[in-house]
Amino acid sequence: MTGLAQPAVIASSLAYLAVVLAIGVWAARRTHDARDFFIAGQGIGLVVTTLATMSAAFSGFLFLGGPGLTYRLGVSSFFISVPVSFTAGLLCWTVAKRLRLLAEVREIYTVPDAVLARFRSRRASGLAAVAVIAGTVGYLGAQLQALGLVLDSIFGTGLAAGMAVGVVVVLAYAVAGGMVAGVYTDVVQGALMIAAALGVFYYALESGGGLGAIGRTLAESSDFGPGFLDPLGAAPLTALGFYFVFGVGVLGQPQMLHKFYMLDDPRKLKWFPLALSSSQALVVLLWIGIGLAVPALVASGRLAPLASPDDAAPAFLLGFAPPLLAGIVFAGVLAAIMSTADSFVNIAAAALVHDLPKAFGRPVRRELARGRWAVVGVTVASALFAFLYGDLIALLGTFAYGTFAAALAPAFAVGLNWRRVTPAAATASIAVGLALNLGLELWGRQAWFPALPKPPLAAGALPSAVALAASFTVLFVVTWWTSKGDDDVDADVAAVMEM
Questions:
Q1: Which residue, 182, 312, 482, 491, shows the most beta carbons closer than 10 Å to its own?
Q2: What's the rounded Cα separation, in Å, for the pair 36 and 336?
Q3: DSSP string, 270-324
Q4: pLDDT for 168-177, tens place per residue?
Q5: CATH match for 3-393 among 1.20.120.80, 1.20.1730.10, 1.10.510.10, 1.10.3470.10
Q6: pTM of the predicted protein model
Q7: Residue ranges of the domains in the chain?
């Protein structure tokens, strides 16, 4: 069953597309230079910043990937979302204020710009730019995969054709409006999803006869069984790895850190933890509701077994939610994917035309024009990578999130708060985290050499969790080895670190 059989779903989706196009046209008229394109002119208020950050954290990864991952792994997948109870405060109190104030004293557009300002190392900032590009290809690929799945669910295009259409739409949108288009689409997305999450959660529980009935159905099912409801699941290291990577690793996510540069007044950050954590907690209910209801519906025979776990959310919305609510959710998912995709392509474009050339001492002229061409290259590369990766949206997103976390979180979490961290320590931490995460992930997934053994990891251990722990260890060890006890930090940066 596709959305073509439900006019309300089609009408909601088309109405959303009209709103998106209107925002894109409006944003293009407001985008005059690189400052507008990359950080929205640094004129965004608290509400828009909150919604933009929430969208960057969730989007297609949560709405489609989350229920799919729960269908495969059980409730242990919820350890990805449990950290929302503290990550907003952790972000704000650890890095947000310092990043925003750095943008007051320096011309900073990107995360590698902040690395360069703090450590005065072009090598460290260049490696940070490489990490941003590598993680973006994975994360943007997950968004395009989710967009293709939504278009296939609504219009019956097929996944590959849906992804191709999505690439064209994202390119037209991101090239014109830059970051301005993305953050204001977040307002539409946030309003839709917060309004719809409670409704979806209610109908998900109702479809299964309540939370108790859902639990009994799953516990008695031969397809899912009691292990489905085990908080740590069959592989406890996987659940704990999710918690570690998505809890501590939030401090290295450029798609979230980048939003703080856009805030018009850093004093508003005192309200940010409350605003972000409360909105995230509401939206997570959509994942929990569908993630529990769909396996119970399959176990009870009311829903056919899914061809792919990623079909969980579309199958529930089209088969068990009221058409109007399904249409609102699909429109909200489209909005979330579009705004997040727009943010990612612009972050990667900035890394390509702003950060890497600066790291090599050869700044690019006409960054705005070059940035728009970089958007095209990054988007196409991400779509190809997602298609070849060939796994769940959530697993592709976890790989990308882990890449950012392992490479960038230690340098930001520690480096912006401890003046003794040296440029050599930051460089080594970024290099080890990036190389180890990419190496372990690709080694574990390679199929070209069947005789090659799998990486020597404990059963269920996430490569990104191992890489993140190694990155922190390297940062502290190299700091101890290379620090001479003096504060080799520029005066203006040191003043920001003391605030």
A1: 182
A2: 21
A3: GGHHHHHHHHHHHHHHHHHHHHHHHHHHHHTTSSPPPSSGGGHHHHHHHHHS-HH
A4: 777 766 665 4
A5: 1.20.1730.10
A6: 0.87
A7: 3-393
